[in-house]
């Protein structure tokens, strides 16, 4: 036997977990800062009209938005254009767009889908009437108009 023998096995020191909450919160803040929440990039200029009698929509996840107004890019002209999601569209594209949005949702949610029209207050009513006619033919009968809450005579 040796003079300097080992009296027991040497244990490895335990890993400190004191800094673990700091690391988790740093990751959480990083993802909160980096994550972008957006609906669509507006390609048309919309200044909503004012209204006195307004209601807030309950489930915004069941709302499909149609934007109508003059394009932000002046190269495209000054006439009102229709924006569906992130692209410009014609009246004939609305019916297919409604069908595609219905297919993406569950069967139970389909009766509650609302189509919201965000229309610039200076847009003529003719294009809005044409859009409503296309929505009727697509059987999208729940229509909402996006407005600013305020007096209707404020301009």
List the helices and strands and how they pair.
Layout: H1 20-34, E1 50-51, E2 63-69, E3 81-84, E4 87-89, H2 94-103, E5 114-119, H3 125-137, E6 143-145, E7 148-149
Parallel strand pairs: 1-7, 2-5, 5-6
Antiparallel strand pairs: 2-3, 3-4
Explain what you see:
- The chain has helices at residues 20-34, 94-103, 125-137, and strands at 50-51, 63-69, 81-84, 87-89, 114-119, 143-145, 148-149.
- It has a domain at 50-148.
- The strands form two sheets. A five-stranded mixed sheet has the order 4-3-2-5-6, covered by helices on one side.
- The protein is an alpha/beta fold.
- 12% of the residues are buried.
- It holds the Pfam family ExbD.
- It comes from Cryomorpha ignava.
- Belongs to the ExbD/TolR family.
Low-pLDDT stretches: none
What is the typical, i.e. mean, pLDDT? 88
The major pleated sheet works out as: 5 strands, mixed
Write down the secondary-structure element order.
HEEEEHEHEE
Distance between the termini: 101 Å
Q: What can be said about this structure in brief?
A:
The chain has 155 residues and is of the alpha/beta class. Helix content is 25%, strand content 17%. It has a domain at 50-148.
Features:
155 residues, alpha/beta, 5-stranded mixed sheet, 3 helices, 7 strands, 25% helix, protein transport, transmembrane transporter activity
